[in-house]
Every structure is written in structure tokens, then in C-alpha cells.
Design brief:
Elements (H helix, E strand, L loop, with lengths): L2 E5 L5 H10 L3 E5 L3 H8 L8 H9 L4 E4 L2 H6 L3 E4 L14 H13 L5 E4 L7 H11 L10 E4 L18 E5 L2 H14 L4 E3 L3 H32 L3 H8 L20 H14 L5 H11 L1 H14 L9 E5 L15 H10 L3 E5 L12 H4 L4 E4 L4 H4 L3 H6 L4 E4 L6 H6 L3 E4 L3
Parallel strand pairs: 1-2, 1-4, 2-3, 4-5, 5-6, 7-8, 9-10, 9-11, 11-12, 12-13
Antiparallel strand pairs: 6-7
Length: 424
């Protein structure tokens, strides 16, 4: 039986651990969070995801979670790094978790080990940062161990594309590394696995995928701001543009870009390219536009309350949603935090409700959450898409700021409630 060790048991590493275990691998999971380790060993999911909950219950005892990374590496044939790669408060990439994982792996590294990096990093990181750390063990990549990069493509909450059926790209530091990495992914996936030529190519693939989305979202967010000034409904415009069967891909505006990928990855390329003597002005502008959307949403709140002769100060406001996207509990980089902070700084009596993030919610249910004068929809949870507008009216809500454009504008206005969307 092949033995697999995974560093990082979060939104990327934990699904991989479950899938590999189902495919017959003996799996060791390494994480510094002792509470998470205990949860997993007891067959419980630290992530609020029904599929993971069911899988871990079935796989109880088959995934061996531990905080002892060195021995887990020694007992494994393949090691995959899935640790976080966040930004610091100044938007500089923080690769300390990846480097720490590599240092631990180096102390347990043995001949014929295959090391795969899935954590999102800037191009050249695998070759210039991780490889030297691994070779500090005294082993050499040319003769002793294998190293490759394979960007993760997890999309939490996606019912159609899951880990098992999403194509992957591989870039190894040499031919043997690439071949062995492809062999591993072919053993667990029902999807194509492409040799992309080198780790730096594979690293760039991940950055380019999410920079593409970031740029297009920034474009449509800017269009939304423009259309607001002209009384144009951007949702209608996007619907019309989407009838063109070529050269247009629909993206939608919103109150901010969250998640660990789109809001983070461009910064990795911006900084690395800057060190190599190139300035990514286009990516920087996209980041600036998308980072402006929480403040723009707050301005929509001010505008909406002014229509009923009120200000933010002393007004009861409920923010619906803390997660960065619908029907999941992931709050990483969620625009909700900035929106809440700005509204509170303006004197608003701000409370929060998210049915998936109960630990941050001020209410036990949606009914109680609607006891306010203004609601700000930040997350497109199904519960919010299907709001009972009669109940909303009954509970005293006078203003709705639809940060995800998920409600029927005309039906809201028919009930005498002020409506402001993003670009509509």
C-alpha cells in the first residue's frame, strides 16, 4: 500500500486526504492545529461541509492526523504540501507556512521520496525557495528525491466540479519528478493530468487563472459603478451581452472579492515580477478596483438610508453573510469584514447573520436577523436568494442593499422598500 503524507488539513488538504484514502492510500495528515487533528481522528470534520462530514465519518481511523510532521514524512512515500499562503497586512505574500513545511519535510526526507507542492505560490518559488530547503537534508534532487508543483483547483461548494473530476497540470523539476507526480494524480483522479513543462510554468498557471478572473471582475465592477450613474441595469446588460456566442464571458459585479485565491494570487505575481524588474500595472489596477467595492457598498447604504431621511449613525443594520461565497462557511478575505468595520466606524448598530458561520452570527435565525431598518446582503447563500419579501417588510426593514444582486429589484420596490444593488 502506498503511503501519502499531506501537510495542511484545510479546504485543500482535507478533501485530498479523503479522496486518496478512498483510492487505497494510507494517509497521514499533518497540521499544527491540535483541535483539528483531534476532530479528524475522531471521524469529524473541522470544516462545515456535508460531504466532508460524511466522508470522515466513513473513513474514521483510516486518515491518521498528527502534528508530528517529521515522523509522518518518514513513514510516507509521497508528501503533498497544502498549507496556507496568505498575505500580510501590507499585501505582501507570506510563504512562511510553505517554507516551514519544507523544513520539516527535509528532516524526514529519504531517497525516492516524491514531494508535491499544491499551495499557491509565485512563479519560481518551488525552484528557488523550496528546493534549497529540501536539499539542506543532504539529499539531491537530481539523484535522490523528486519534486513537482501541481496547483490546487478546489472550488468549495461547487456541485459539478469536485476534486476528483477537475483536470490538473504538473510541472516537475526533472522528467522523473513529472512522471511520478502524474502517476500519483492519475491514481486518484477521473480527469486529465497535463505535463506543463516545469514548476514555474505550473505555478504561473494558477496565478494566471485567478488573475484572469480578478481582472474581469474588476472590469465589471467598474462598469457597475459607471452604469449606476446612468441608470443602467448591469444585470440586463450582461444578459444581453451573453447572447453573443463568442468572445464574451459573463462575470458579475459585487460588494467585494473574497476567498483565498482571487483576492490573493495576483499579489504573488505582482511582487515576484517586481523583483525581476517588471511592473504589473494592469493587475495592480484590478486589485485597486476590487478592493474598493466594500467602501462602494457602504456608500450604497448611505444613499439608501438618505432616501428615508436617515443616516448610518444609530441605525440598526444587519449584514447577511460572512462567508466569501454562497453555501459554504469559508470567511477568508470576505468583504464582509471591511463593510462591517466601516459601518461601525460610522456609528451604525451593526449585527451579523450567517447560517453557515454560526460562530460569528449575532442571531440564531433569519427571522430575528430581519429585525432592523436596513439589511446588507454580502453573501449569496440560498437562504438569502429566497428571502420572503413580505416577511422582510413585516419585520420593519426599510432599505435593502443587495451586494450580490440576488433579489428581484422590482418586487422589493413594490413593497415600498428602498433597493440598491451593485450596478442596478
Amino acid at each position: 500500500m502506498k503511503k501519502l503524507c499531506i501537510f495542511g488539513l484545510g479546504y485543500v488538504g482535507l478533501p485530498l486526504a479523503c479522496l486518496a484514502s478512498e483510492k487505497g492510500y494510507k494517509v497521514f495528515g499533518v497540521d499544527v492545529d491540535e483541535k483539528k487533528v483531534k476532530f479528524i481522528n475522531n471521524g469529524m470534520s473541522p470544516i462545515n461541509d456535508e460531504e466532508l462530514k460524511n466522508n470522515l465519518k466513513i473513513l474514521k481511523g483510516k486518515i491518521h492526523a498528527t502534528s508530528d510532521g517529521i515522523n509522518a514524512v518518514k513513514d510516507s512515500d509521497i508528501v503533498v504540501i497544502c498549507v496556507p499562503t496568505p498575505l500580510d497586512k501590507n499585501f505582501h505574500p507570506d510563504t512562511s507556512y510553505v517554507k516551514s513545511a519544507a523544513e520539516t519535510i527535509s528532516r524526514g526526507l529519504k531517497k525516492e521520496h516524491l514531494i508535491i507542492v499544491e499551495s499557491t505560490v509565485s512563479p519560481l518559488t518551488t525552484e528557488e525557495d523550496i528546493l534549497p530547503i529540501l536539499e539542506s537534508s543532504g539529499l539531491r534532487s537530481a539523484d535522490d528525491f523528486m519534486l513537482a508543483f501541481c496547483p490546487e483547483r478546489i472550488d468549495p461548494g461547487n456541485k459539478k466540479f469536485k476534486l476528483i473530476n477537475i483536470p490538473r497540470v504538473i510541472g516537475g523539476i526533472n522528467k522523473k519528478s513529472t512522471e511520478k507526480a502524474i502517476e500519483f494524480y492519475n491514481s486518484i483522479l477521473d480527469a486529465d493530468v497535463l505535463d506543463i513543462g516545469s514548476p514555474r510554468n505550473a505555478e504561473a498557471v494558477k496565478i494566471m487563472e485567478n488573475a484572469f478572473r480578478d481582472i474581469n471582475i474588476a472590469f465589471v465592477n467598474e462598469m457597475a459603478k459607471s452604469f449606476d450613474k446612468m441608470g443602467i441595469n448591469i444585470i440586463d446588460v450582461i444578459k444581453g451581452a451573453s447572447t453573443k456566442p463568442f468572445a464574451f464571458m459573463a462575470h458579475y459585479p459585487g460588494c467585494g472579492v473574497g476567498g483565498h485565491c482571487i483576492s490573493v494570487d495576483s499579489h504573488y505575481l505582482i511582487e515576484r515580477a517586481n523583483k525581476k524588474g517588471f511592473e504589473h500595472r494592469f493587475l495592480q489596477l484590478a486589485r485597486t478596483i476590487n478592493n474598493s467595492m466594500p467602501e462602494y457598498t457602504v456608500n450604497c447604504v448611505v444613499k439608501g438610508l438618505n432616501e428615508i431621511s436617515k443616516s448610518v449613525r444609530n441605525t440598526k443594520i444587519t449584514v447577511l453573510g460572512m462567508a466569501y461565497k454562497g453555501n459554504i462557511d469559508d470567511t477568508r478575505e470576505s468583504p464582509a469584514f471591511k463593510i462591517i468595520e466601516k459601518l461601525k466606524n460610522m456609528g451604525g448598530e451593526v449585527k451579523v447573520f450567517d447560517p453557515y458561520v454560526t460562530g460569528m452570527s449575532d442571531f440564531e435565525n433569519l427571522y430575528d436577523a430581519l429585525s432592523c431598518e436596513c439589511i446588507v446582503i454580502v453573501t449569496d447563500h440560498d437562504e438569502f436568494k429566497h428571502l420572503d419579501l413580505n416577511l422582510v417588510k413585516e419585520r420593519g426593514v426599510k432599505v435593502i442593499i443587495d451586494g450580490r444582486n440576488i433579489l428581484d429589484k422590482e418586487k422589493v420596490k413594490e413593497r415600498g422598500i428602498v433597493y440598491n444593488g451593485i450596478g442596478r
